[in-house]
Amino acid sequence: MGVIQNADDSDIIFKSDDGSGGVTAYLTLDGGLGYTTASKAIKFLDNVSAAFGTGGGGDYGITHDGTDAKHENYTGDLKFINYADDKDIIFQSDDGSGGVTTYLTLDGSASYTLASKDIYLVDDVRLRAGTGGDFSFFHDGSNSKINNNVGNITIENFQDDGDIIFKSDDGSGGTTAYLTLDGGDVSTIVNTIKVLMPNLPTSDPSVAGQLWNSSGDLKISAG
Is residue 31 domain-resident? Predict the structure, then answer.
C-alpha cells in the first residue's frame, strides 16, 4: 500500500506524541522543496547501517556494531569537505583525562594543517617533503637518518643573535655542545678537546685559506 500526496507542492508529514502532551512532526516528505526532512533524531540500532549510494547494499555506510563506530566506503574516494569560508576540519579524540582534545586541524583560514599533539612515526616510516618525496627523515629501529636526493641541505637560523648548536653524548650520561655557530659573535666555536683531520693535504694546496699538514705542522695556505 502506498501513501501518495497528489497536491502540488504539498507534503506528507509523520507526526507523533512529543513527550509533553502534544504532537510534533518527526518526518516530512517535502513536496515543495523536493527532499525529506527529519525533525527528530533517527536512531540506528547496533549493526544497522545507514547506507548511501545506488550500489547493492550501498556504496558507503555508517554503522555501530555495539563496540565500535565504522565508516566504510566501497566505491571511489572518501572525502571530508568543508565548504564554509575560513572554517576548519577538526579531528578530536579522548585526551586521556576524561575529556576530549584536538589532535589535528585543517585550518581553512590560515591554509595549513596544525598538529596539536605529537605525531609518532613507527620504525622505517618516513616523513617526506618535496613533490617527489626528495627529502625525508626517519628512524630505522637503530639509527635516525636524514636523506636528501635533490639539491642542497640548508640549515638556517633567522633569530637575531641566535646560534646553531650541534650536541651529542658527552661520555658521562649527558649531552654537550660539540660545535656552535654563534650568530651573535659571528664565529664558530669548537668545544671538543680534540679535532681529528686525517685527510688534510700533505703539501701546500695553493688555495688561499685552506689547511694542510706540513709534516705534522698545521698550516694555512696563502694561495
Answer: yes
Q: Total structural domains in the chain? A: 5
pTM of the complete model? 0.83
> Sign of the CA dihedral 197, 203, 206, 208?
positive
N- to C-terminal Cα distance for the chain?
Answer: 102
β-bridge pairing 144-148 and 187-190 = unpaired
Assess if residue 7 is contained within a domain.
no
User: Is position 174 within any domain?
Assistant: yes
For residue 50, the enclosing domain spans 12-73
Per residue of the chain (223 residues), give pLDDT as tens: 788 989 999 999 999 999 999 999 999 999 999 999 999 999 999 999 999 999 888 999 999 999 999 999 999 999 999 999 999 999 999 999 999 999 999 999 999 999 999 999 999 999 999 999 999 999 999 999 999 999 999 999 999 999 999 999 999 999 999 999 999 999 999 998 888 999 999 999 999 999 999 999 999 999 8
155-189 burial code (b ≥16 CB/10 A, e <16): eeeeeeeeeeeeeeeeeeeeeeebebbeeeeeeee
